Amino acid sequence: MHSTERLLRALENAPVEPFSGFVYRVIADRHRESPLSSIGSVRSGGRYNAPNTFPVLYCADSQMTALLEVEALFTTADGQLRGAARDPDLVLSLQCELTRVLDLTDEHFCHELGTKHDELISFSPSRFILNARGEQTPTQKLGAACSFSGSVSALKVPSAANKDGFCLDVLPDSLLVGEHITILDDSGRIRGQISGIIPVPQERR
Question: Is the pTM of this model over 0.85?
Fold first, then answer.
């Protein structure tokens, strides 16, 4: 991964694309009153954000990828899917309308950032060990650069838990006016929406 300075220069010309469709998010049932809160990612950090930095709403392309990512499902040595005993979860379907998604499942722009697929899905170095030392992983540095740049609303990245899936990691504080994420629930029991408040740059009007 390039240095932060080089990442920011590369992101000035990032090939962002619109994304319209559904993604999925798993949360503990005890958090059903704030289903789109990113406070957990702020406190604990994640693959693309260090603890106590900026929020990321971690989502996935399918229910299975989402469950694998939070380790509610796991793959055994013989390739079988198994469930893990855990407290109740909710699987949310989220309708996304985003205009500035950086697609890192295509390795072409990864080269511009000084990274590659294997680094994006790696569990080494451990983010827990590095973060305890006050350091960041390469992917956390990339997420920070995307957040600081103000030019990226979300990252589409390969899933570390499902080789056939991807994650959509949304930067809620970077959403433009018109961008939004809404929970699908026709029953009306679980409601939630994140709407962008940043004015659209003049050249994009």
Answer: yes
